[in-house]
Design brief:
five-stranded parallel β-sheet, mainly alpha, 458 residues
Length: 458
């Protein structure tokens, strides 16, 4: 008999309560641990090339970490997991709990099938420091605004990182094999737990100090880019929170530590919102403009295509969109700017932009992506509604003051010196090959505010 560790969004050996529970159960019964990853065709089919490529590389790294004992099976988990449990005579399948719209019913179905075969599904831990659904108001309701959620989340607290099992008796079971890297044009970071931990420690040493001041500067290497390993569970947020606490004790400025902790809280807030309202993955949590406010037909498709290709004529927007295509990642400040531009300058529904992001982000995560888009669109859980509209020129001058970020990603503008790069239409000679602005921001801002006011009056 064996104990199964069914890994999903926890592709690591350190700080992994589900793996630790599987190892403890196996040692108590003098059994072995089956490290199982199920390659679900429903998820594989809808993931973009950067995510698929990164996942393949991360699974290869996990296979190495287990001494080549990672068991990959292809198929529907509702059938595969019970089949493997019967194959190895497992009494327990250990897993980190899932809270996503697809994962919750999937796990319930697997649990029922395992129960019929006399096997238990044991949930231990989750991809979050505090599992969605645990942080509630005094009235027992979910929070709808971030700041009070964050305060309650901090007050709730979280466990210390789980110790890595000293020895794991890995079982040797037939595997369909780690999937080959399908390839991507995006320049992805190295995958796997070790590489992620190295990048995290480098960030703590080189960039944590000053993070609160520098994190909005896309022209500087001031962010950790931990969204990718957090998406795949190569690191757990609890590990990051423990390291931040240690850094604070070692003298790191509290403003920097608290600013980073707040970013982790946003991740947990969005997961909590989606847990309580799964339809938020596709439906606006509130309607903020009339239906006739949205672009449709050929106009919508032309706007979406220009935005996706980084050909809007607004340099900061175009730089962000080209970074996305080149790296499978985009700086958070730019994510807000380009999302605002699509929804409120081009009047394209947020769902179209969210789908494009999911197709190209290596860190594409349903709760983070969809709820961040809703925040920018003004349709989500936020105190400031639709009238938040980012000006791509002023955002560029403030956060990319010398134009370094724009010149890196928009080669047509590399000869434009200084902040003038953010307004190429004001230059005496237009840079060859760079498009005119697709719309007038001031005019489209007025249109968006008028639409918002029409909806409010109704």
């Amino acid at each position: 008999m064996a104990s199964i560790w069914w890994c999903r969004r926890d592709l690591r050996l350190d700080d992994n309560p589900a793996l630790a529970a599987a190892a403890d159960a196996a040692r108590a019964a003098d059994d072995e641990v089956v490290a199982l990853y199920v390659l679900d065709p429903r998820l594989w089919a809808v993931a973009g090339a950067p995510r698929l490529s990164y996942l393949a590389r991360s699974l290869a790294a996990l296979d190495d970490a287990t001494g080549g004992r990672l068991v990959v099976r292809n198929g529907d988990p509702r059938a595969v997991v019970p089949a493997v449990a019967r194959e190895v005579a497992a009494e327990e399948v250990h897993v980190a709990a899932s809270f996503e719209p697809y994962g919750v019913p999937r796990d319930a179905a697997v649990e029922a099938a395992l129960h019929d075969a006399g096997t238990r599904l044991v949930r231990t831990g989750s991809p979050y420091a505090v599992a969605p659904g645990r942080v509630l108001t005094r009235q027992g309701e979910p929070y709808k605004v971030f700041t009070p959620f964050r305060d309650a989340w901090v007050e709730h607290g979280w466990r210390a990182p789980a110790p890595r099992p000293t020895s794991i008796p890995w079982a040797e079971v037939r595997s369909d094999g780690v999937p080959g890297d399908p390839g991507t044009t995006a320049d992805l970071p190295p995958a796997g737990e070790v590489a992620a931990r190295d990048r995290w420690h480098a960030f703590l040493e080189d960039h944590l100090v000053g993070y609160a001041r520098e994190r909005d500067r896309p022209d500087r290497p001031a962010t950790s880019v931990m969204s990718v390993p957090l998406k795949w569970g190569e690191l757990h947020p609890r590990t990051l929170l423990a390291d931040l606490r240690d850094a604070l004790h070692d003298g790191a400025p509290s403003d920097d530590v608290l600013a980073y902790r707040s970013e982790l809280a946003w991740r947990e807030f969005h997961a909590d919102v989606l847990f309580h309202d799964p339809a938020a993955a596709h439906r606006s949590l509130r309607d903020v403009v009339p239906e006739d406010a949205w672009a449709t037909g050929d106009v919508e498709e032309q706007y979406l295509a220009a935005w996706a290709a980084g050909r809007t004529g607004y340099p900061l927007v175009d730089a962000g969109m080209r970074q996305l295509l080149a790296e499978g990642w985009m700086h958070n400040r730019l994510r807000m700017v380009v999302a605002s531009f699509l929804v409120k300058d081009l009047h394209v529904r947020w769902q179209r932009g969210a789908a494009h992001f999911m197709a190209h982000l290596a860190d594409g995560d349903v709760s983070q992506n969809q709820l961040n888009w809703q925040w920018v669109a003004g349709t989500g859980r936020d105190a400031a509604p639709y009238f938040r509209i980012f000006n791509p020129v002023t955002q560029g001058k403030k956060f990319d003051p010398d134009g370094r970020y724009v010149r890196r990603w928009v080669p047509e503008l590399r000869d434009v010196v200084g902040p003038r790069v953010h307004e190429p239409w004001k230059l005496r000679e237009r840079p060859p090959g760079y498009p005119e602005p697709i719309v007038d921001h001031a005019e489209e801002r007025r249109v968006s505010l008028d639409d918002f006011e029409r909806a409010r009056r109704r």
